[in-house]
Amino acid sequence: MSLTTATTAEQIRAVHQARHTGRGREVVVTTILLVAILAAFALSLSIGDFAVPIPDVLGALVGRGDTGTHFIIIELRLPRALTAVCVGLALGLAGAVFQALLRNPLASPDMIGVTQGASVGAVLASITFGISGIALSFAALAGAVVTSTLIYALAWQRGVAGYRLILVGIGVAGALSSIVSYLLTSSDVTVSQDALVWLTGSLNGSSLEQFWPLLGALVVLLPLTALASLTLPVLQLGDDTAAGLGVPVERSRRALLGCAVGLTGVAVAAAGPVAFVAFVAGPVARRLLPTKGAALVQAALIGALLMLVADFAAQHLLWSSQFPVGVVTSLIGAPYLLWLLSRANRIGKGG
């Protein structure tokens, strides 16, 4: 056997070993995240003003137990926990898609205007028509879709470059945030109490009636996102390379952006503009699986876990009052954003 042949064989074995190690780590990380989600879900059902033992929780879930326990678990706690999981899944996946597609850690829906568009839609609908409840959620979804379309149109110049879309999105986000602030502080308008609570990013008042539309949307959007993401590894190599490999760049990008916007819209419609979940989930997943690329599945699971833990903390761990979940996620995400920006500055200066 020649030296060249031996070297090639060693390289092939090294590649196979790296792939096997990567798959093993992916399975371990995914399993740990699933177990953590199940544990957080069980705690959210069991612990509260009236503690319910885990066996009684399981009994209530299968239709057994007394009426009081059934009411606490099924009517009060289960809708909130299920909504937290679904909203976290949607936001974590949407943020990871945005960041991977645009190749920028700042490219999350709450940084580039999508979430702010949903907020404007909800506030305007509340002021103009006085709507609340599920109608308010549909108004927020419409606001997210319209804003995303506007950002894409403004960023279009014979195609959409990632940095241009981010810059346009940040500008639109700032303008929309100013509009929301003006509407909320103006003495000439009246915003419903539901809209004010929704704007904080809250799971208070979650019900099964509000959960079913969210679940139905995810049943459609999650497979579509999985299908659209098949081209994502090639798109991450750059537009020219992807086009050279036969990938329809703009069509694939629009499909991914559409799925990410849809996921963001339905999540924000269900729970309000919960900050930083989409922003944080993707980078954490990529640090856990540095060889996995976008790590979309793991980012979605981290989003779900973050929502459950943050909502549990908002209900039970912060002083004596319940806080909206958006307050806790902001406390988690804001320091990360500052660290990310300071790190970018150091790298820019050669640090």
From TrEMBL:
UniProt-recorded name of the protein: Iron chelate uptake ABC transporter family permease subunit
InterPro entries linked: ABC_BtuC-like, ABC_transptr_permease_BtuC
Entry's localization field: Cell membrane
Pfam families xref list: FecCD
Bilayer topology: Multi-pass membrane protein
Family: Belongs to the binding-protein-dependent transport system permease family. FecCD subfamily.
Transmembrane segments: 27-47, 81-102, 122-155, 161-184, 211-235, 255-281, 293-317, 323-341
Cell membrane recorded as keyword: yes
SUPFAM superfamilies: ABC transporter involved in vitamin B12 uptake, BtuC
First-listed, main subcellular location of the protein, grouped into a coarse class: membrane
